[in-house]
Every structure is written in structure tokens, then in C-alpha cells.
Design brief:
The structure is a single chain. This protein has one domain. Helix content is 54%, strand content 7%. Strands 4-3-5 form a three-stranded antiparallel sheet. The longest helix is centred in the N-terminal third of the chain and has 41 residues. By secondary structure, the protein is mainly α. Bound molecules: zinc ion (ZN). Zinc ion binds next to loops.
């Protein structure tokens, strides 16, 4: 296994310099003449997969708290208990957006690292991220509107969890964008019932990276994506790549929902 990736994280370069591992696994090639043992990259990748549950937990609890605060304040006003909310609703909504922004960036960075790409975020990646973020802000406007007027049929706490699910989707975005050219991508149905779109992507694969980006990613699809027929919420699908870092099983954070 030989992998070639780019890195500009000083922490990782430092670690590689002090690595006592045998270079038997090969070296990864870098821009600027920096080389890392494959084992160091594999370790960073494994760590990135492991960090996902923490990110999901933190975002779920902070976003859930803000959602409840919003709803309580909106209720005080709609029930005529106060003329103005104790905490301005706009300020809470802005904090919800800030949480989405920060968590999605972290998720994308973790996805890239999991794919073995240790570089900082590029402009192209930021553009993808921005598109997803703006979609979420639009949904959030509808959500906060419903909380003010008592609209919507779904339980609000459950609805807040959709934003957490989108963090998983953003992880896969980073994962795809971090793939080395020439990678072969497979979509695997997770351990649950599948919708038509997931079945289609699973059976059409494996894809070359270029085909996957054009036929799947650029059409708005990824595991857990809202664009799927199942709307992603119960989706437990995952992606694997031939190169550089193999993932043989469904990540544990795709727990049953
Ligand atoms: Zn699925």
C-alpha cells in the first residue's frame, strides 16, 4: 500500500519526525518535500473516525439546548406571559447557526482526515460546505418559524436531531473530497432497511472517484443526506475506498436510530 497525500499540519509533521516506526509500510509523498510514514497517516485516519461520536454528542447537546431555549421563549410570548422574549429569539437563532457552522467545518475536517488527507481546507471544499450550510439555514428558518407559531407535525426535539444527522453527511463530504485521485469508491447499505436511492447507489458501485463525484456527490447525495428518498435520517449507509485507508465495517457511530 503506497499512499500519496498532502499535509500542512505542523503537529502531524512533528509527530512524523519523531516517529520510530519502521518505514516498511512506505512513505506518503507530500508537497514541499515532506514525507510521512503511511502508519502515521493511518493512525490519524483511525483517530478521525473515533472522534466523530464526540462531535455528534457535543453538537446534539448544544443544538438541542438552544432549540429548547428558543421554543420556551417563543411560547412565553405566544401565550402572552411576556411581551418580549427573555432571550431575543434572533440571538438564539444566530447561536444555532454558529453551532451548525462550527460543527460542519469540524465534520468536514474529520472526513478529510479519515480519508488520509491532512491538509487544511481548500476554497473548493469551503464552497461545498457553504452550499450545505445555506441549505441548513433555510430549513432552520422554517423550523424557528414553526416553533413561534406552533406549526409542523413532528416533535421539535426530534426535528432538531435532523441537524445532527446532517453532521454525518458533512463527514462524508469531507471524506469524498479528501480522496486521492484514482480511488475507487463503494457505497454500502447499512444494517437497516434501505430506501430506493441508497439501493441504487450501492448496486451501481464501485465508482471511480470522478464518477462518484459527478453522479452522486454533485447531485446532492451522500450517506445520511437529506436528498435521499429516506431523507437520510434512518440511513446507516457508509462509503469505502480502495485507497488509501480501507474501512471494512460500518462505523460504530451509525448506530440504530
Ligand atoms: Zn442509506
Amino acid at each position: 500500500m503506497d499512499i500519496s497525500i498532502l499535509v500542512d499540519d505542523p503537529r502531524i509533521l512533528e509527530k512524523a519526525r519523531h516517529s520510530h516506526r519502521s518505514p516498511a509500510g512506505g512513505f506518503a509523498g507530500f508537497r514541499g518535500g515532506q514525507f510521512l510514514p503511511v502508519a502515521v497517516v493511518a493512525e490519524e485516519s483511525a483517530r478521525a473516525y473515533q472522534e466523530v461520536p464526540n462531535l455528534l454528542r457535543e453538537f446534539s447537546s448544544s443544538f438541542g439546548m438552544l432549540q429548547q431555549l428558543y421554543h420556551q421563549n417563543a411560547l412565553l410570548v405566544s401565550e402572552g406571559k411576556t411581551a418580549v422574549p427573555l432571550v431575543p429569539l434572533g440571538a438564539i437563532e444566530n447561536q444555532m447557526k454558529a453551532g451548525i457552522r462550527a460543527s460542519y467545518l469540524s465534520a468536514m475536517t474529520l472526513g478529510k482526515r479519515a480519508a488520509g488527507d491532512l491538509r487544511a481546507t481548500t476554497d473548493e471544499e469551503q464552497a461545498y460546505l457553504k452550499r450545505l450550510r445555506l441549505d441548513e439555514y433555510q430549513f432552520l428558518r422554517g423550523f424557528t418559524g414553526d416553533m413561534r407559531t406552533g406549526g409542523g407535525r413532528m416533535d421539535y426535539g426530534e426535528r432538531a436531531e435532523w441537524y445532527v444527522n446532517a453532521v454525518r453527511e458533512v463527514f462524508w463530504l469531507g471524506w469524498v473530497l479528501g480522496q486521492k485521485p484514482g480511488s475507487v469508491i463503494s457505497w454500502h447499505n447499512g444494517d437497516t432497511a434501505h430506501c430506493r436511492s441508497c439501493d441504487e447507489f450501492a448496486s451501481h458501485g464501485p465508482y471511480s472517484l470522478e464518477d462518484f463525484r459527478r453522479d452522486v456527490l454533485d447531485r446532492g447525495y451522500l450517506p445520511q443526506a437529506g436528498a435521499l428518498d429516506c431523507r437520510g435520517f434512518h440511513c446507516r449507509c457508509f462509503l469505502t475506498s480502495s485507497d488509501p485507508i480501507p474501512l471494512d465495517e460500518q462505523p460504530g457511530w451509525l448506530e440504530k436510530r
